[in-house]
Amino acid sequence: MSANATVNDAVTWVEQWLEYDETLHVYWLLPHRGDANYERDYVLADRERVTLIEADQFMGDTEFSYLFTGNGYTEDQLLALKRRIYDELGYVDIVVDQLREGRTVLYRWLLFLSGHRAGDPNPFAVIANVHDLMVPFKYPSDGHRIDYHRKLEVAEAAFSDGRWFKARLDADEMPVYGQQFLQQSVLAEALDTSVVTDSPIDFSAFDEAYASRPRWLHVAGSGWEKKHGDLVMDIAATLYERLGIRTLLTSMDTIPAKYQALEWVEAHPEAPRDLYEEMLRKGDMAICATEYDTLARTWFEQAASGQVLVLRDEPWIYDCVPRDSKLVAPVDELEARAVWAAEHWEEAVAENRRVMGHVREVRSPERTGQKTYRDMVRLVDERCDEFESPKAKRIERIVETLDESTFGLDELNRASARYTENGKPLLDQEWCTITDLVFSLREMGYVDVGDGGTPTFTATVQHRRSPSEATGVQEQSLSPFNRQNQRRR
């Protein structure tokens, strides 16, 4: 994963999926905790059905790491996947790839580890999580990004098994740019099977409490050029000079000395999360002047904390802001709108409440969890339908000789040596791979219970909370990871 927002999104998905499906197991591939400053419980790896795999990122230990945050997979990462999954007789059904590049290598490696043979159905599906599509109007001043990178990212997304777009804007822009070098039929098919996830936020963690009048403007987050920090600080100066509103600055990065030196600024560079949350409660206003983004998180956390949010009129904001909002203005009117909000405080607060009512619906974790889970159901159902092999009958005959209703794959593999013609375990046979074994067990009605380590299968059907039970939305598919063969049961 290449950015804080992508990790936050994925944490929310995983939390929802674990609620829906009691037999789902999740593997995380993340940088080492000491390098990326996160805890096991933050990524839900403090429980049995989540395995954290830590490995070095590409160029991660160099001063140039920022150039490669979205690059491909390292030797350390690929070998870590082998050790923590396949060496333990594990497997994957779905891969959610959050990097911009390197999908080809990842796909090849996982196919090899799963024992895939030419002509066999793919044992897993790779989903491209498109969190900030590199279309031409984005990153215009980055000399290390050219059309080659933009075309490559669009093509890799189009040819993946599935696509999750964080923002509808990116889904709309992909065919506009992509038609220059891809056939329209390719783009149409890709978009037909895509999902717009909308970046989820658990707004229950924020107290939308407003001050009686504005005293503090809160400028939070990174200082990327696209966010136009100088413009925001010019507006901040006007708010101070005309209305006495001071400015809070919080960032996980450094803050320019010229900002910190201002007498009306309280600056917190390299601010930890708890300090940022404290400033959420202290701030009263926020300004978004960025040119482009994909359902940014920080500004809407500020708005959910009772900070009236004034936004620059750009297409991306309408993924989650009503088009008639009084808090939206063109860039050359942004300062005037911020002054209006401060001077017409009660009206501005009422409008911010209306915006947040809309945002809460669009960016609901439950809504995003439903969308992503259903797409995994669809993709794994397709693979279950494709799996037809005479090997399944041979495996079934061996499994039926065992007097066990629950067993680990390692136990089954060891015991199977007693029933094979050459006395070797199933997974030492040239004709049997981990994929053959897993899909055959599913065909027989066995269920993977989702424990950590070597997978355990049972003949007892496990109860699973479906999205319809958990959220009131009707479910249309069977569990993707433990679909029972209805003809045989």
How are the elements arranged and paired?
Elements: H1 4-20, E1 26-30, H2 33-36, E2 50-54, H3 75-84, E3 94-97, H4 103-113, E4 125-130, H5 147-159, E5 162-165, H6 168-178, H7 184-192, E6 194-196, E7 216-220, H8 229-243, E8 246-250, H9 257-260, E9 265-268, H10 273-282, E10 285-288, H11 298-304, E11 308-312, E12 328-329, H12 334-343, H13 345-362, H14 365-386, H15 391-400, E13 406-408, H16 409-416, H17 434-443, E14 447-448, E15 456-458, H18 467-471
Parallel strand pairs: 1-2, 3-4, 4-5, 5-6, 7-8, 8-9, 10-11, 11-12
Antiparallel strand pairs: 13-15, 14-15
Helix pairs in contact: 1-14, 6-7, 8-12, 12-13, 15-17
Structure characterization notes:
With 489 residues, the chain is α/β, with parallel strands linked by helices. Helix content is 40%, strand content 12%. The chain contains 18 helices and 15 strands. It has a four-stranded parallel β-sheet. The protein has a three-stranded parallel β-sheet with strand order 7-8-9, with helices on both faces. Helix 2 links the parallel strand 1 and strand 2. The radius of gyration is 25 Å and the shape is elongated. Residues 462-480 and 483-489 have low confidence and may be disordered.
